[in-house]
């Protein structure tokens, strides 16, 4: 029982990170049709933001905020420098552009900072546990769950209640029509990138706080999982991305915890087999994106 | 003489090697209605989209209320006082009626003014008020057309580019749409009306231009165009 509860907390926590990354990918994809392979480096940069802030003596919470800000700044810089010029190009061209950006950033991290992991030392108490009756539960995963929920609630409010949020949903349906109405499309697209950076920054902070180090590949693997999550959920569907993220996180943690030792090395294969099975049953994903009717 | 709402001169638009629009001249008087007629593929929509800043043109000029807007993008054209209800209506289907209007209100710098206009639109088109929370994709064709017009009016335009508003609508709805065009003119909003339904368009217009194969085949008053039997049989099929 105790292990099960702990594993569920871990699964929701890890799934939340995947879900935030997947949601960031989906927000950008839904508007500009960009499958952003450089999203992992946005997350990594957020991790380095935490590292550098701590190195300059910032208090821990300020360092985490710096990490989030660094990811937002990186997402906006990539949009401005690399992706704005490619607006309207076909999906493959955009994909290859994002590969190039991703590789450039990785090399910059390796040569500019370090190819090896750099340590992030946060207060001991953060990695402690708390007790719920008989159960012992980690503080970090618990906090990360609440942070994730707050991020989703905030994003939902933005998309439902603010003009720029409604404009982002309109842009996902018909960007040209939005421009015909005179709405400044660049601002809407930049906002989408900023939000995807914000989510990647929060994911980076949770990730680094739990793992205690940053390296140039830090963002790569979680974002890879997030890609799987977006496809599982339905490419371009925001709700699908969140659902897919939690599903992949859940499968991964449960496979890790409950697979017999002989099968443990095949954890990722087992998880991906489950994803493939789900896609065979629902080829458009769990919650497919609604596309607007266009004549 | 007051300055024209829209003045297009020598417009030429190419799609690759195809010259879709060839040397089109077109005027909309301030507060007037110009009907742009012609068969399918004659270049009506391309001309309208070029005036809206949404198509690059190879040659020619577009002047809006006396300002040269040649090569301007749609953002600038809207800020010069032009709004568009495009072909196919293109309402945001996954947004509610109210949200469709909210998005268009984003171009109004004053938030309170934008909210006021949105309320005005829902009074002016009561069916939109009734369905404010409904998804625009679930509206009927006629309701979607009203939404497209209301959405265009959110920016407070002096010239409306209205593309095929009657297409696919029931006759009663078509009448309603044309009443709206009349009402807009009464308010002093000029309209460039692209229509396949030539008879109706000629009723509301004070000027008409007929396109054929991307070029102007005839231009004049509605009476002149309507009386030209050859023109009718050749291009208007009405």
UniProtKB/TrEMBL annotation, chain A:
Signal peptide: none annotated. InterPro entries: ABC_transp_permease, BCAA_transport_permease. GO terms for biological process: D-alanine transmembrane transport; L-alanine transport; L-isoleucine import across plasma membrane. The keyword Cell inner membrane applies. One of its GO terms (cellular component) is plasma membrane. Keywords: Amino-acid transport, Cell inner membrane, Cell membrane, Membrane, Transmembrane, Transmembrane helix, Transport. It comes from the Bacteria. One of its GO terms (molecular function) is L-valine transmembrane transporter activity. It is found in: Cell membrane. It is a multi-pass membrane protein. The chain crosses the membrane at residues 12-35, 47-77, 89-109, 135-159, 188-207, 227-251. Pfam families: BPD_transp_2. Belongs to the binding-protein-dependent transport system permease family. LivHM subfamily. PANTHER family: BRANCHED-CHAIN AMINO ACID TRANSPORT SYSTEM PERMEASE PROTEIN LIVH (PTHR11795), HIGH-AFFINITY BRANCHED-CHAIN AMINO ACID TRANSPORT SYSTEM PERMEASE PROTEIN LIVH (PTHR11795:SF371). This is Amino acid/amide ABC transporter membrane protein 1, HAAT family.
Automatic annotation (TrEMBL), chain B:
It comes from Rubrimonas cliftonensis. This is Amino acid/amide ABC transporter ATP-binding protein 2, HAAT family. Pfam families: ABC_tran (PF00005). The keyword Kinase does not apply. GO terms for molecular function: ATP binding; ATP hydrolysis activity; branched-chain amino acid transmembrane transporter activity. The keyword ATP-binding applies. SMART domains: AAA (SM00382). Coiled coil: none annotated. InterPro entries: AAA+_ATPase, ABC_transporter-like_ATP-bd, ABC_transporter-like_CS, BCAA_Transport_ATP-bd_LivF, P-loop_NTPase. Belongs to the ABC transporter superfamily. Keywords: Amino-acid transport, ATP-binding, Nucleotide-binding, Transport. Residues 6-238 form the ABC transporter domain. It comes from the Bacteria. GO terms for biological process: L-amino acid transport.
């Amino acid at each position: 029982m105790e292990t099960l509860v702990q594993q569920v907390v871990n699964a929701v926590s890890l799934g939340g990170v995947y879900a935030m990354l997947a949601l960031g990918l989906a927000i950008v994809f839904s508007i500009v049709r960009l499958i952003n392979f450089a999203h992992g480096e946005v997350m990594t940069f957020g991790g380095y933001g935490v590292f550098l802030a701590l190195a300059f003596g910032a208090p821990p919470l300020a360092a985490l905020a710096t990490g989030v800000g660094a990811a937002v700044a990186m997402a906006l810089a990539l949009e401005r420098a690399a992706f704005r010029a490619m607006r309207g190009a076909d999906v493959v061209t955009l994909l290859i552009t994002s590969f190039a950006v991703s590789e450039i950033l990785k090399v910059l991290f390796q040569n500019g900072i370090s190819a090896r992991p750099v340590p992030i030392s946060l207060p001991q108490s953060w990695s402690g546990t708390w007790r719920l009756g008989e159960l012992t539960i980690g503080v970090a995963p618990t906090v990360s769950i609440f942070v994730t929920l707050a991020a989703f609630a905030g994003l939902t409010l933005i998309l439902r209640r603010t003009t720029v949020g409604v404009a982002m949903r309109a842009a996902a349906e018909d960007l040209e029509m939005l421009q015909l109405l005179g709405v400044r499309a660049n601002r809407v697209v930049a906002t989408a990138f900023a939000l995807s950076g914000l989510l990647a920054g929060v994911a980076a902070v949770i990730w680094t706080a739990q793992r205690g180090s940053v390296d140039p590949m830090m963002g790569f693997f979680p974002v890879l999982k997030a890609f799987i999550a977006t496809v599982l959920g339905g490419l371009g569907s925001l709700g699908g991305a969140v659902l897919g993220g939690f599903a992949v996180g859940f499968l991964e943690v449960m496979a890790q915890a409950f697979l017999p030792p002989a099968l443990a090395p095949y954890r990722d294969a087992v998880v991906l087999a489950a994803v493939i099975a789900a896609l065979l049953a629902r080829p458009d994903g769990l919650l497919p994106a609604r596309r607007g009717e266009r004549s | 003489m007051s300055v024209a709402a829209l003045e297009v001169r020598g417009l030429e638009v190419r799609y690759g090697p195809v010259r879709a629009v060839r040397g089109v001249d077109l005027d909309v008087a301030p507060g007037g209605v110009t009907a742009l007629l012609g068969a399918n593929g004659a270049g009506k929509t391309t001309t309208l989209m070029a005036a809206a800043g949404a198509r690059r043109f190879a040659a020619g000029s577009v002047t809006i209320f006396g300002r040269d807007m040649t090569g301007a993008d749609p953002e600038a054209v809207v800020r010069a006082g032009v709004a568009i209800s495009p072909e196919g209506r293109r309402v945001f289907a996954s947004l509610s009626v109210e949200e469709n209007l909210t998005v268009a209100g984003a171009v109004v710098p004053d938030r309170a003014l934008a909210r006021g206009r949105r309320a005005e639109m829902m009074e002016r088109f009561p069916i939109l008020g009734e369905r404010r929370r409904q998804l625009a994709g679930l509206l009927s064709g006629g309701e979607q057309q009203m939404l497209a017009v209301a959405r265009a009016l959110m920016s407070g335009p002096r010239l409306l580019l209205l593309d095929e508003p009657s297409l696919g609508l029931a006759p009663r709805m078509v009448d309603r749409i044309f009443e709206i065009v009349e009402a807009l003119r009464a308010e002093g909003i000029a309209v460039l009306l692209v229509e396949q339904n030539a008879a109706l368009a000629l009723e509301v217009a004070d000027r008409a231009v007929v396109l054929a194969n991307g070029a102007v085949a005839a231009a004049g008053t509605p009476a002149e165009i309507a009386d030209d039997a050859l023109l009718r049989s050749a291009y208007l099929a009405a």
